[in-house]
Design goal:
The protein is about 35% helix and about 25% strand. The chain is an alpha+beta fold. The protein folds into 2 domains: about 1-165 and about 305-310, Ribosomal Protein S5, domain 2 (2-Layer Sandwich), CATH 3.30.230.10; about 175-300, Alpha-Beta Plaits (2-Layer Sandwich). Strands 1, 2, 3, 4, 5, 6 and 11 form a 7-stranded mixed β-sheet that branches. Strands 8-9-7-10 form a 4-stranded antiparallel β-sheet. The longest helix is centred in the last third of the chain and has 20 residues, at about 200-220. It is globular, with a radius of gyration of 19 Å. The protein binds L-homoserine. L-homoserine binds next to helix 5 and helix 6.
């Protein structure tokens, strides 16, 4: 028996919502898990992509044994019901660019878990799956929107439990994802963050996060433009993303552009706009990045509303 699950890309943080907000985007990985009947065949992990943004180099660094994160998540699910996984074949059909801040690892972990859960007769509920996915992947702000779709707040509390809610997102706000041709690992992007931040920066983010939640809920474009600012992670990550500061600066005074933020831990950038010339967005980003010999893949998308889907 085999099960396939299609899982969307995600963009975490949205500026002031560091480690707590994420949205799902319509770029997908499809994960298929097959329990093979031949004992002793071990695990087999295959990765495929027809997307030019994902090259062989990206794939070569991904482990194909028990240390693979998809296998680890699946094993944890089996163990949670007192079972060991049998021989498994895991196929990943990838469209989400890797190490670009678009939740590719959250997508494969979520896909593997949902597929394995279906194979096992659905013993785990959504909260349990979210917990395992967070334990393996580390970022509830990516795994929650990958499962639920849309705009999601998620927090791992001190006792380890995950608190999450799906929130409304204005359908007519455009999201432009700008993906540069260089990688940035989340580990490196987290290593530049300080252990402590000034009190006024923490307060700044609390205020802007409150504004953001209200702006999105009431579709208040004017408030959203003020809300999309951050002092907890983006200023520290600027040095890792050439052109980031210039791109953010270029959109500050463009009416109709509600904000420009780093997507997750970067290096992709996200521009949220309303009734604005999307070609102009592309040309502004291209001008900065191509001026630094960085190739770009720029896509204007609507939010992905549904989240992970088990395919028939
Ligand atoms: N919130 C996490 C970070 C997302 O910014 O490091 C990682 O995908």
């Amino acid at each position: 028996m085999k099960v396939s699950v299609k899982v969307p890309a995600t963009s975490a943080n949205l500026g002031p919502g560091f480690d707590s907000l994420g949205i799902a985007l319509p770029i997908y990985n499809t994960i298929t898990i097959e329990e093979t009947v031949l004992p002793g065949t071990g695990i087999e992990i295959n990765l495929m992509s027809e997307d030019d943004a994902i090259d062989e180099m990206n794939f070569s660094n991904i482990p194909r044994d028990e240390t693979n994160i998809v296998y680890k998540a699946v094993e944890m699910l089996y163990n949670s019901i007192g079972q060991e996984p049998s021989e498994l074949k895991i196929n990943i059909q990838a469209q989400i660019p890797i190490t670009r801040g678009l939740g590719s690892s959250a997508a494969v972990v979520v896909g593997g878990l949902l597929a394995a859960n279906k194979l096992l007769g659905s013993p785990a509920d959504e909260t349990a799956l979210l917990s395992i996915a967070t334990e393996v992947e580390g970022h509830p702000d990516n795994v929650a929107p990958a499962i639920l779709g849309g705009f999601v707040m998620a927090s791992q509390e001190d006792d380890g439990s995950i608190v999450y809610r799906k929130l409304n997102w204005p359908e007519d706000w455009d999201i432009t994802v700008c993906i540069p041709d260089f990688e940035l690992s989340t580990n490196i992007a987290r290593s530049v963050l300080p252990e402590q931040v000034p009190m006024q920066d923490a307060v700044f983010n609390a205020k802007h996060l409150a504004m953001l939640i209200h702006a999105v809920d009431t579709k208040d474009e004017k408030l959203m433009k003020i809300a999309l600012q951050d002092k907890l992670h983006q200023p520290y990550r600027e040095k890792l993303v050439p052109g980031m500061k210039e791109i953010m600066e270029a959109f500050k005074h463009e009416d109709g552009v509600l904000g420009c933020v780093l997507s997750g831990a970067g290096p992709s950038m996200l521009i949220i706009s309303y009734k604005y010339d999307l070609d102009k967005i592309k040309s502004i980003v291209k001008e900065v990045w191509e001026g630094q010999s960085i190739k770009t893949d720029i896509r204007t998308l609507k939010i992905e509303p549904k989240g992970a889907e088990i395919l028939d």
